[in-house]
Amino acid sequence: MKLLIVEDEVKLADYLSKGLSEEGYVVDAVHNGVDGLHSAMEGQYDLIVLDGMLPGIDGMAVLAALRQSRQTPVLMLTARVRVEDRVRGLKAGADDYLVKPFAFSELVARIETLLKRAGASRPLDGGVLLSVADLRVDLARRRATRAGQRLDLSAKEFQLLALLMRRSGQVLSRTEIAEQVWDVNFDHGTNIIDVAVRRLRGKIDAPFDQPLLHTVRGMGYVLEPRPL
Question: Residue 122: is its pLDDT beyond 50?
Fold first, then answer.
């Protein structure tokens, strides 16, 4: 899943980007309201973490403009602690509100709750465990197993597998995979996605009887159990 962070404190934005990437999300970060609104309107994000006080356009104005055409879940961050400020943010269309300073674990929990509410949740256990047939991924521990055997995956292979498992049963195009895992526009002149899928397939399918990762000719890839 892809998140947008709009936060003018660069160190905080970098910290959140790193932490959320480690949680398995693809993260973009911008540092002012103008760039935040442009990215929120032009990009395809599952959730936006939006600071309330931004240079250029403040967070409330960004939220108001966004809500005219987009219902992307928004978690607002603010240093303002007054109840009326939080109420103002929620009435403006924020889906949740988190006061600084906050614990990173609380931020992750709130993001997972909002994604679940939006129908884009991780499917098991409220957030960190993914399962398809005998394939398991623990997002918190960054661990993947199949039939109880530990799978040795690179960081990108883990992200790719997590994406395919979250969207199990759905055909993902090479373009969508490139955007969600590599955060780049797919270049049709390269075979980077096919190479990555082949390597992943060699680790999650080759040693086992039942293949789970399938090619859908002309469309992309899908992870799902099929009858043998």
Answer: no
